[in-house]
Structure formats: structure tokens, C-alpha cells
Design a protein that fits this description.
This protein has no helices and 48 strands. With about 475 residues, the chain is mainly β. It folds into 3 domains: about 110 residues, Immunoglobulins (Immunoglobulin-like, Sandwich), CATH 2.60.40.10; about 200 residues, Single-stranded right-handed beta-helix, Pectin lyase-like (Pectate Lyase C-like), CATH 2.160.20.10; about 120 residues, no CATH class. The strands form 7 sheets. The chain has a 17-stranded parallel beta sheet that branches. The protein starts with about 25 loop residues before the first strand and ends in a 36-residue tail after the last strand. The N terminus is likely disordered.
């Protein structure tokens, strides 16, 4: 008899239950859903992990399958980290082959029945190589393991350092790192210094210049390294797109970090300090991004001929002097700001501690827009508009500064801002000013959020921002002045 979608043999017509789509029965009990939204990540050269939404609620558990083919050859992962009871939604698959792409699918199961699978795009395991300081003896010295590490940077076989390689820099190296390979836009080469128990350090001993030089190589990531004591520059990036992540870069007789010739460099989670000249320097059409970082130097950030600089979620202790376009978001600035083209939002400019650094901490922005910024001082901060430049302040707080000053043909426009206790105030325009004591929560303790009775609460104009300096959500209405939404 040919199969039909219903059966009627001397009784009422029976049809499939549409609620059973994507569900299964075992022993009369329905498996009531399937997992979804699988996200994979690469953990090492032999491990990948995943997380997903469970979907089903009465399953016995979940299985993870993997294959090097998208359509066939899937094997159930049986290592302990891949065993998932019914309430789990994370897993790790171990024992994989380095530098290999894997497809993964996850199913819910009950008894012997499995749900429809959830899949994700393939991910590729890393290749691991290792380098230890010159002068030691490390087995085969072919870089294949910590025991068989390359003997110093000059011993590295760069032909083996292919895209998607992690080169573990182990121990203290007293030589210059000059990568001889590039990554690709999708598969970078990573130089990592956080090998367990043997932190990676590049030490110039105050005699070597340019401790990390990319020589035009691109798509390189430098992670968790200490780069220090350069007779010249700790890192010098020429061309290419490269990243420094969670690095400590310090003590240089020139710049700590320098970028040249259309380089695109990001510093994320870094601590940069102790340069005789600039801590962060850009030249010749470079693009620089500083985020989640702390830069401390008398001259903290400077450039000559850069294309753009972005600073976000960072702390800058020192003088910022730029001639290019600069965007600063959700950052704390303890120093002068000079330049013709700034776009600044939700930042704190704290001029109270003029003796902390050698540089005199007086505010000196010469052009740009400042939205929801807080400027605080003890009678010692300045806002200066030089000839031909226009400063625009919206939803800002200026508290106990020394003065605003307009040079010939300069302009300072204010909209919905609070200028309180300014010794000498000069504005070109002051639209809808907010008057009265700002009423910070605790000025002495540097708590510049607003007290409940502050006149600066709920009076700002909506400018389309979504987060304040502390990461709080900025609503569409009832905007507070200053860098904190209360």
C-alpha cells in the first residue's frame, strides 16, 4: 500500500500532528525541540569549543559531531568536555589536527532518537610554534613544542610561520623581533607572550633600537608581550595592518610606539609609558586606534601627517597634540588637548592634578565638537579657541576652570551646557545655558556623577549616543549633561 499523509481503515481519519515537526518520540515521550544558534571558537591548535541555545527542554542531553567535510564523515565527540547533560549548552572538542578546518553540528537526544542538528560555519585550528631565548639548548630546536623551541628570534624558520600560526614567545629575549611572514585578512599571525610559566619579554637593555619592526609585514598580532628598554623605539610599524593586544610597552629614549607610511595599527588593552619623546606617535598617513588602554607620558599622543587617530575607552595621562582628524570616545584625559579637528564624546577632562606630570595640565583644544564631556579643575583649566577654529560644546559641564579665551577669529559655541565657577568666561554663543552649581555626587572623591538635585540632570538634548563613560545606557530622552548618565 502506498504511503499517504493519512490512514482510514474502518475508523476516524488520523493525520500527523503538526506540532511534532522538528521533534521525535521514544517510548511515547516527545522530544520537544532542537538546539539553535551554534557559535564556535578556536581554543588552541587541537581544540575548538561551542555554545548554543538548547531549544528542547526534555532531552537527555546533547551530542556534538565534527568533520573536515561539510556534508559527510561526522564523528561524535566523546572527550569529557564534549559530554553534555540535558541542562548544558557548552562543549569543547579536543584531540584535533592543527591548522585544519572543522565543521560541527549539535543535536539533542532522548534515548536513541536525535533532533534536527544545528550547524555553524567551519572554524580552523591554529598551528603552534615556540621560540625561547638564544643561548639555551632546546631539543630539536625546530619550534614544534616548548621542549623543541627555536633558539632565539634569528633561529626562526619563517617559511614555517604561515597564516593562522601562533608563535609563542617564551622567556626574556635580548634581541630584535623582525617578523619575516605576513598573515592574511582572515588568518593573522599571532605573536603571544603569555605561555604558562614563561612570560614573553623583549628587552632592549637600553642599547637596541626598534625592538619590534614589521618591515612592511601585515596582519600581525602581538599579544600579552612586555616590550621595554629601547634605545630608540619599542615598536616601529611601517605599512601593513597590525595589532598590539594586552601588551606592556615602556621605557624608550625616543617613542614607545611609532607608525609610518600608511600603517594601520590598533593598541587594545595596552599600557604604554615612559618615552623620552612621544608615547604614541604617527607619521605619513597612518591610522591609529587606541582602545581600552592607558597611555602615560608628558607627551602622550602626537602625530605628523597621520590620516586619523581614534581613542576610546582609554585613559590618557599627558598631552595630546594632533594635526589630523581625531575621535575620542568614553575616555579620561589628564592633560592638554591641542589640534584642529576633534570629535569628542562622553569624556572626562580632569585638570585638578597639575603637579602629577611634568606637563602643565591646562585644557587647550583648538577645534572640534565636544558632546557630553565633563571638564573639572581647581581654577586651572583653560579652553582656548585660536584664530579660524570653532569649538562647539553640547551637553557639557565645565566646572571651576580658569578661563575660556577667544583669539582673533576663533569661535566657542555652547548649547545646553553648564559653565560653573569659571574665572573668565568668553563665549561666542550660549544657547539654552544650564545655570547653578553642577552638584557632583562627590567632587573630592572624583565622583563626577550627578547628585539627585543637580540642575544638570534630564535637561540635555538627544545626540544619538548609546553609552556613557561608565558604559551605562544613554536613553533617547531625559539626557543628563556631562560624561555620566545617572
Amino acid at each position: 500500500m502506498r504511503e499517504r499523509d493519512s490512514i482510514n481503515i474502518g475508523g476516524p481519519r488520523l493525520r500527523p500532528d503538526p506540532s511534532l515537526k522538528n521533534s521525535f518520540r521514544k517510548g511515547g515521550v516527545k522530544l520537544d525541540g532542537s538546539p539553535s544558534n551554534l557559535v564556535l571558537s578556536v581554543d588552541s591548535d587541537t581544540e575548538i569549543s561551542g555554545i548554543f541555545d538548547r531549544g528542547a527542554t526534555n532531552q537527555d542531553g546533547f551530542y556534538a559531531y565534527y568533520s573536515t567535510s561539510e556534508t559527510s564523515g561526522f564523528v561524535k565527540a566523546t572527550n569529557a568536555e564534549a559530554v553534555m547533560p540535558g541542562t548544558d549548552n557548552t562543549f569543547k572538542i579536543t584531540g584535533l589536527t592543527p591548522l585544519t578546518s572543522y565543521y560541527v553540528k549539535v543535536v539533542a537526544y532522548k534515548g536513541t532518537k536525535e533532533s534536527d542538528p544545528v550547524t555553524a560555519s567551519a572554524v580552523k585550528t591554529y598551528k603552534y610554534l615556540y621560540v625561547r631565548p638564544a643561548g639555551g639548548s632546546y631539543g630539536l630546536e625546530d619550534g614544534s613544542s616548548y621542549t623543541n623551541a627555536y633558539k632565539g628570534f634569528t633561529d626562526i624558520s619563517w617559511a614555517a610561520v604561515v597564516p593562522h600560526t601562533v608563535l609563542w614567545i617564551c622567556g626574556t629575549h635580548k634581541e630584535v623581533l623582525q617578523p619575516g611572514s605576513s598573515g592574511t585578512s582572515n588568518e593573522h599571525i599571532i605573536f603571544s607572550g603569555n605561555y604558562t610559566g614563561d612570560q614573553g619579554v623583549i628587552d632592549g637593555e637600553n642599547t637596541r633600537t626598534n625592538l619590534v619592526i614589521n618591515n612592511g609585514k601585515t596582519y600581525l598580532e602581538f599579544r600579552n608581550l612586555t616590550i621595554t628598554k629601547a634605545a630608540g623605539t619599542c615598536s616601529n610599524m611601517t605599512g601593513g595592518t597590525n595589532w598590539f593586544t594586552n601588551c606592556t610597552i615602556s621605557t624608550s629614549s625616543d617613542q614607545c610606539v611609532e607608525s609610518n607610511t600608511s600603517a594601520n595599527v590598533t593598541y587594545d588593552g595596552c599600557t604604554i609609558s615612559g618615552a623620552t619623546d612621544e608615547a604614541v606617535s604617527g607619521h605619513s598617513n597612518t591610522v591609529i586606534t587606541i582602545k581600552n588602554s592607558t597611555v602615560t607620558n608628558s607627551l602622550a599622543v602626537s602625530e605628523v601627517g597621520s590620516a586619523s587617530i581614534t581613542i576610546e575607552d582609554s585613559i590618557i595621562n599627558g598631552y595630546i597634540s594632533l594635526g589630523c582628524a581625531c575621535t575620542i570616545r568614553r575616555s579620561k584625559i589628564y592633560g592638554k588637548l591641542v589640534g584642529p579637528n576633534y570629535n569628542v564624546s562622553y569624556c572626562l577632562f580632569d585638570f585638578r592634578w597639575a603637579t602629577v606630570l611634568a606637563e602643565n595640565l591646562t585644557g587647550n583644544p583648538t577645534g572640534g565638537t565636544f558632546d557630553n564631556c565633563t571638564f573639572v579643575g581647581v581654577g586651572n583649566g583653560q579652553i582656548l579657541a585660536f584664530g579660524g577654529y570653532t569649538l562647539v560644546y553640547r551637553n557639557c559641564i565645565m566646572y571651576d576652570l580658569y578661563r575660556t579665551y577667544i583669539y582673533t577669529n576663533g569661535t566657542i559655541n555652547s548649547n545646553k551646557s553648564n559653565w560653573y565657577s569659571i574665572t573668565t568666561l568668553a563665549l561666542s554663543s550660549n544657547t539654552d545655558p544650564i545655570t547653578g552649581d553642577t552638584k557632583f555626587t562627590n567632587f573630592a572623591a572624583a565622583d563626577f556623577t550627578l547628585a539627585a538635585d543637580s540642575p544638570c540632570r534630564d535637561v540635555g538634548i538627544s545626540l544619538g549616543y548609546t553609552r556613557d563613560l561608565a558604559g551605562n545606557v544613554v536613553p533617547a530622552t531625559n539626557i543628563d549633561l556631562g560624561c555620566y548618565q545617572n
